[in-house]
Amino acid sequence: MLKSALIVGAGGIVGGNLAERLIEDGWTVHGLARRPTFRQPAIKPIAADLTKAEETATALKGLDVSHVFISAWSRQATEAENVLVNGGMVRNLMDAIGAAPSLKHVALVTGLKHYLGPFEAYGAGAVPETPFREEQGRQEVANFYYTQEDEVFAAAKREGFGWSVHRPHTIIGYAVGNAMNMGVTLAVHAEICRETGTPFAFPGSATQWNGLTDITDARLLARHLEWAATSDAGRDQDFNVVNGDIFRWKWLWPRIAAYFGVEPAPFSGEIRPLEQAMADAAPIWRRIAERHDLVEPDVARLASWWHTDADLGRPMEVVTDMTKSRKAGFLDYQSTPDSFYDLFARLREERIIPDHG
Fold first, then answer.
1. What is the distance of C-alpha 265 from the center of its chain?
2. Considering the chain, what is the average pLDDT of its residues?
3. pLDDT digits (tens, 9 = 90+) for 1-55
4. In the predicted model, what is the mean pLDDT of residues 291-300?
5. What is the 3-state secondary structure (H, E, C) of the chain?
6. Domain containing 137 — which CATH number?
7. Same domain membership, residue 180 and residue 39
8. For a designed S-S bond to 3, which of 27, 269, 310, 344 qualifies (C-beta 3.0 to 4.6 A apart)?
9. Where's the PRISE-like Rossmann-fold domain (predicted)?
């Protein structure tokens, strides 16, 4: 079987980890981005702005791949704009590559906002009971995830390839410059607390502090994507994908604090947004970076305060069911504490955060 992939967003937290996985497994990997700079030299770069149909068609003309993986989006001011822009990006991509002679499968990565609703309407609709299951379907609100799905479904019906939709929870994994990256954000938060002697304070809601939740390791998501895209059981299916364990933040938070040698602050019961607490973090991080010879002195390239606030500030429980994947044959499991510890170790190895010995 031809194993040639086009990864849209190959420099991000999902696409980058997927590229590592596929290259290790012998795939030929093409990476599409507006400004393609990838950490894996084996990726064949393609530069294109997916919001521009003609540019996308020109960039992908003559490319023949067996699989397409879509793991990129463009954040807009409103969900209506998200629907318009991100739906259009997928449509332009499908118009350009959907008829490739060898194309067998297109995989789309979305997330649990499929059930929760978009950022501007978190929990505004009738949020289904947890754990979230694929059979619960869509919310009655505008959501660019749904529009992206519909574009893939329409192209699959037209061209005859298979599809899969993957809905991870919060993704923990190695990436730099990513807009939705809680693991790196918490590492930077902890290092700034260490530098300033400030207690490591949980920024989120009492519901998230006390309730059960789960996450998705980017490496497990990469395995899930490869499995669904090459398995009969994954064809034309939507799947949740999380690590397989559950935890409470009040249990995990002091363990993260201990890893960084900082004191966890007692939980006050009130939301303390990082976007406010870290408003003056830029010069502090630059000082840390200069002293430890780190590769990225710009804290805005590392920390996504807004996304971590949105994630940890949720007023509802978020737990995800993996039964559908298990029954279809995907049995992989990942320890959540190890997801964080492995990421932190790699951040130190790559000189993204300090190694204090």
1. 28
2. 95
3. 679 999 999 999 999 999 999 999 999 999 999 988 888 899 999 999 999 999 9
4. 96
5. CCCEEEEECCCCHHHHHHHHHHHHCCCEEEEEECCCCCCCCCCEEEECCCCCHHHHHHHHCCCCCCEEEECCCCCCCCHHHHHHHHHHHHHHHHHHHCCCCCCCEEEEECCCHHHHCCHHHCCCCCCCCCCECHHHCCCCCCCHHHHHHHHHHHHHHHHCCEEEEEEECCEECCCCCCCCCHHHHHHHHHHHHHHHCCCECCCCCHHHHHCEECCEEHHHHHHHHHHHHHCHHHCCEEEEECCCCCEEHHHHHHHHHHHHCCCECCCCCCCCCHHHHCCCHHHHHHHHHHHHCCCCCCHHHCCCHHHHHHHHCCCCCECECCHHHHHHCCCCCCCHHHHHHHHHHHHHHCCCCCCCC
6. 3.40.50.720
7. no
8. 27
9. 64-354
Q: Give me the active site residues, please.
A: 113, 145
Regarding whether 196 and 96 lie in a shared domain, the answer is no
The pLDDT of residue 131: 96
- 220 within domain boundaries: no
Query: Which structural domain, as residue segments, surrounds residue 163?
Result: 4-168
Tally the domains of the chain.
Answer: 2
| Residue 271 lies inside a defined structural domain of this protein | yes
Please check whether residues 8 and 84 belong to one and the same domain: yes
Q: Are residues 90 and 206 in the same domain?
A: no
In this prediction, residue 180 carries a pLDDT of 79
State pLDDT tens for residues 115-136: 988 876 665 567 789 999 999 9
- What pLDDT score does 123 carry? 57
